[in-house]
Amino acid sequence: MRQLSSELKKELNQLGTGTVQETVQQLRQIGQSGVYAAIPVMLRMMDHECADIRRAAEQAVTRLLAVCPVSELVWLNEHVREWRPSPVDRKRVVEREMHTMDQASTIRLSMLTMHWSGYIREAAVKRMIREGESYSFAYLLLRLNDWVPEIRNLARAALERKQTPEYAKLWMEHIMLVERLRICCRDSFESFIESVHHLLRQKECRYVLHTARVSLEPGIRRLAFHISMEAEGTDTEMLMEQALRDEDPSIRRWAAQRVDRMLSGQKLREVLLRMQMDSVPSIRRESLDVLATMYPADAREIIMDRLLDSNLSVRDTARRHAKPWMKVNYAEWYLDAIWSEGQDHLAAALAGLGETGEKADAEVLFEYAQHPSVAVRKAVIRGLMRLDAISYGNHFVCSLRSPQPGISREACRALMRHPYLIKPDEAAVLLSGADDLPHVIRNVLRIISAMGRWTQLGLLLQQLPTARQEWVKRTIQRQLHNWAQFPNRSYGGRMSTAERERLHTQLSLCSQELNSDLVQRLEWLIQ
Length: 527
Prior knowledge:
It contains 34 helices and no strands. The chain is mainly alpha-helical. The chain has a domain of 63 residues: Leucine-rich Repeat Variant.
């Protein structure tokens, strides 16, 4: 929860401007909000001259830190240093903090490990190491990537002394910060990370891994499964069962990619059949691949069902495995499915026809263009785009106006692949007349980005002064910036004098709403 609401931003800007009682009340309210992104702004209040305000600020930061996930301490570590005193006051601030370091509370000490001054960070780390409290794990792990080598070495030496089964629970609770070291480049951490994994794989830490696999934090569960795979005495069958039942799709996907190596026989068959019911397409696809390879007799009926799966990759996998023994043209098979009495899989059948049919089959698809089901209409648009986009450009433009965001988005994808099917004037009309449908405006702006370079520029400059919504103006300004920032060779032929003058005129009308540097660059590119 890094986003600050407009009300909270206003409250933080006014913090400390009222009476002592008002400021204390403000701090209490912010502490109860649970928005830990407010911590960097509130730290300055912990140095206030009034003891009541200092105490209230510390209590508020304590509350917010309690709800801050361990993984978000990385973000906090970067933003605590946003506020710095003036150069004149820096020496005095450092001396004061160093003088009061031994009396600093737990919360204050935690924040001092993220201080902008290396002297203060080093002193705070030394005190943490001396006290050896469990809360210091997270802050020492953050300091492993400190830009001061002496601080890195202090933190690493202290943490390496705690690589024993006694501290396994703490290591598992902070495993996300350990894994984060893989992308840190101020030192080499591979041996350190491997030593932590080696500790957690030991027999004495089995219960810690078992507990971590049912943690409320998906990242911890994910890493616990990875480490458990190589742990001593692991029951791989139980591990795979547990992973495939986890609510996190990435954990189930990880298990699906390994299940054929970890299980065998009847147990593997049962698990593969259960994976066919998973909501994640990639898991169904993995299961179908293994079933078709290892249990071909059992897989035939399932493959036939998956020809009408809702996902393209699963349908494609089913067609690949069915090809050796299914002696029929897939387009004809999908036509039979479309015209059958049951309409449960109509959207999938239409999508399959769009993937395997020919240009003439587009007429069949278009018969369902006004179907009441959104899924069916989306499948029709995708199929028409593949089979005969040129003949159905008007349908894409009409679908772009749809109040259903999914229909409009599919039409947008079709027109981005074939932007010549929508005229610039039509795009301009849609932009100016879709105030009640923000998704239509967003989709039209995406299509404009796929048009010719000078057409893009003309449309964006034309729409900027007339845009009534602020977010539309910001989007157009961003697209103009990208247009000028990343030029390429696709500008097309040389413009006529009249076209160049028109662009100059449009740019002059927008000059008040654009950065002066951007205006100059656009003028130069036009000229």
